[in-house]
Fold:
Amino acid sequence: MKIEVICTGDEVLTGKIVNTNFSYITQKLEDFGLSVSQETTVGDDRESLLRAFLLAGERADAVIVNGGLGPTVDDLSQEIAAKAAGVELVLSQEWLKTMEAFFLRRSRAMPPNNTKQAMLPQGSEILDNPIGTACGFAVNIGKARFFFTPGVPRELRRMLEEQIIPRLMAKSGQQTAVFLKRFHSYGIGESHADALLNGVEALAPEGSVKLGFRAHYPQLETKLTARGKDMNDIRAKLAPVEAEVRKRYGNFILGEDDQTLEGVVLAELEKVKGTLTIVESFTGGQITGRIAHLPGAQNVIRRGIVARELTEICNAVRLLNVPEGITKEAAAAVARAALQETGATHALAVLIDLDTGSDRIEFAGTVCLAIATADHTAVRRSRVVGGRDWVRLGAIEMGLDCLRRALQGLPVDERIDFEKVE
Amino acid sequence: MKIEVICTGDEVLTGKIVNTNFSYITQKLEDFGLSVSQETTVGDDRESLLRAFLLAGERADAVIVNGGLGPTVDDLSQEIAAKAAGVELVLSQEWLKTMEAFFLRRSRAMPPNNTKQAMLPQGSEILDNPIGTACGFAVNIGKARFFFTPGVPRELRRMLEEQIIPRLMAKSGQQTAVFLKRFHSYGIGESHADALLNGVEALAPEGSVKLGFRAHYPQLETKLTARGKDMNDIRAKLAPVEAEVRKRYGNFILGEDDQTLEGVVLAELEKVKGTLTIVESFTGGQITGRIAHLPGAQNVIRRGIVARELTEICNAVRLLNVPEGITKEAAAAVARAALQETGATHALAVLIDLDTGSDRIEFAGTVCLAIATADHTAVRRSRVVGGRDWVRLGAIEMGLDCLRRALQGLPVDERIDFEKVE
Structure:
């Protein structure tokens, strides 16, 4: 089945906003085993919209149109959809009532120009939008079924998942269910991961599980798209592949599905009623910044301390014997002093000895980190290369991931792909 | 002149990467007074590419194609360009030599498969790429001039600015120069700014200066695109408009052109050989995280302190009389104690009293902040609404902007559009 996407709106076409709606739509469809064959972006003008609708209607079996359903004069999707479909625009009493109820729940009168949002091409099927006034709808243009969606991201997302994907799955003749299993890791590059997981798909019958990756440095997301008759069937097919991925990645899996590294760290600390102090240098508060604002963190985060000079770091944690330089031992001493000074159950210290000179691709930094508890201190030293930003981002992730490992009783010093062996 | 953009590649089409190259291209063209009429994304397959090239060649005067110039088998742009133009693919001795020199400078031998990158449609004009091996080129397809560019963002950006925009400006018949003047502000919403600057364009002759906005909460960018015979002419035309924008925005302008808020704060502190301590609560280290990693910050950032509980904040700065709650007076006391404890010349304290309950659009927080120096303490209290993220992002920007104002001798408590009047 050929699926196309048409994005509308001057804001996207002029680059005022980056088109994240498109990447959301196409990713989501991929997760369900559906593929987009082409995307077209056009502005808010009648000629371009009509041409784009007619051309896509000739080529595709299904077309998702995003944007142009608002109440203002530059929102043209319904009007041009009607023209392209060769039908009249008619007022939908059903949607008008839905909107009136929407405003009533908010104790407001419906502004008259919202009526425009209930004007739909004759014969359209309504696609419900429970969180906005833009009416989604489906209509045939050429040989394709067109699905019209709102530009507001959360309205689009909900409509895509609840209304459009089920219709596309039915239309594609795939009566099967689809499920996406995700693993998050830090420290394994995409090509290494690809080699490491070689052959895992074959553990499921007849291509029912497909492997994919999505790299966003420093993390890597590994995706298993599984198909089956129903969820029980999918779970059975997925189980051996999942188990093998867990085995091969081992300690490198930091979370699964909707889990985040910072969320996992916070949950592990909550589990042991722990409190955490973080000491940072070049990462400048960005490690603490990943956790401290999360719901629940107010009970866990004891203190965050940032300083760029080692003497000032020692001042802040009342470490009287200032170490001579940035080493694993210095990081351990700072973490132990931080524990002492703030009374937390856990302390993470991430010290960085940065190269000098201007930023360049060979610019590196030596990360020395320590995680201290009352009876143990784990340490790690690592040289990270790739420019100032790369070193900073790598050190943030390494600090959080080593803390995750320490909390889970795993070694903190397993070799990763992003460090330079000396 | 009609300009289209075609983006190629399975990674963009499947949403593995967000298409920021397109938004960069179209924004850059807008800055030069050129407009994109349509964008098309297709995958790495011959049929889709050929169809997209031929259709755009019928509609447009100029087409920018991004991606598909690499050395691997799925890079198809040159091959399909030749087919669409009806010419042969020929080896460019010129580009082959350029690539060999490129590898020689890196003390590496050129891999044989790179030769493919020197295969160009016969009659192509080379567009130089001084930082990569992908060869840009221009060729006619249909009635349009096609410009082929690499997918690597920094290579694309340089080629667009140095090679393509001058050719598009010449082709458009605009022999004039174009200059983009930018202002950055915090605290004025886009529609307010639009009303505030009403009529400023008329201060320049015959539409030579065009006003535009780009909002990225919490900041707003105001753009003046100016045209003239040459830069002297442009400067003369721009001067009265620029002066009027500065006058109407007043203290709200936090920087111009490539300046950033954190960069301005750092520069002001460097100017007075100042040192800075920052105390944060719900912002969790993200204020410190904006400045502490910048080049030069190692001499300015004295200490960053994060804690979620007021008593712990007071512990960290040795404030013995813990205030009763989060008020302007409490923020002032914390900032003064931080100054004392760390010996910095400046201290910023940003305390936040968050609403309770689950996240929702009405979720708000009360921000109490203070900036202390040896002889003065400036304070501000503000209620920010819009959900947890909105409050956090607003408080980060407000903290930095009030520090900027204090350093520049401006009032820190001017009313902004993002706060709720109580």
About this structure: Chain A touches chain B through 60 residues (CB under 8 Å).
